[in-house]
Amino acid sequence: MRLNGRMLAAMRRSTRVTGLSPAESILLSTVVCSPSPPTVPRVGRALGQTRQGVQRTADRLVELGLIEWLPNPDHARAHCMGPTAEGRELYDRDNAESAQWADRTVAGMDPAALDLTLETLRELRRRLEEAERDAGP
After folding, report:
1. Is the Cβ–Cβ distance between 80 and 70 less than 8 Å?
2. pLDDT tens, 59-115?
3. Measuring CA to CA, which residue among 67, 65, 64 is closest to residue 79?
4. Distance (Å, rounded) from C-alpha 8 to C-alpha 29?
5. Kindly report the CA angle at 68 between 67 and 71, in degrees rounded to 5?
6. Which CATH number is correct for 3-106, 1.20.1250.20, 2.40.50.140, 1.20.1740.10, 1.10.10.10?
C-alpha cells in the first residue's frame, strides 16, 4: 500500500506538466499503446476499473481532443478509442519526461535485480488476474 501511495504521488507530480489527471494519463497511455483500438469495456477489464469510470474518463479525453471514437465492426454501441495527433504528441512528451524520472529513480540500482523485480511483478499480476477470472463475476 505504501508503494502504491508513492507511485500515485509521483504520477500526480508528473501529470502536472500535461494537465491530465492520473486516470486520464493512464487511459491516454493505454489507447496510444494498444496494438488495436480498444473499447471502453476492454480497457476497464484490463485495468480492473468499472466500465462507467473508464467511460467518464474517455469522454473527458474526447472533449480535450486527445482521443476520438472510432467505429467498432464487432459491436454497434461499444465504439473503439483511438488517439488523435494531439493525443499522441502529449503522450510522447509525457512519456519522455516519465522515462527521465524513471532513470533518475533507479540510477545506481542493480539492473539484474530490477529485471527480476519486473519479472516477479508481472507474474504476480498474471496470478491475480487468473484468480479474478476463476472467481467469476
Report:
1. yes
2. 999 999 999 999 998 888 889 999 999 999 999 998 888 888 889 999 999 999 999
3. 67
4. 15
5. 140
6. 1.10.10.10
**pLDDT, tens digit (0-9, with 9 covering 90-100), for 119-128:** 999 999 899 8
Instruction: Take residue 110 and report the three cell numbers written for it.
Output: 542493480
Q: How many CB atoms lie within 10 A of CB 56?
A: 12
Cell 488517439 belongs to 83
Phi and psi of 68, rounded to 5°?
Answer: -140, 155
Give the pTM.
Answer: 0.81
**Domains of the chain by residue range:** 3-106, 110-136
Q: Over the stretch 26-35, which tens digit does the pLDDT of each residue have?
A: 999 999 999 9
Q: How many CB atoms lie within 10 A of CB 54?
A: 25
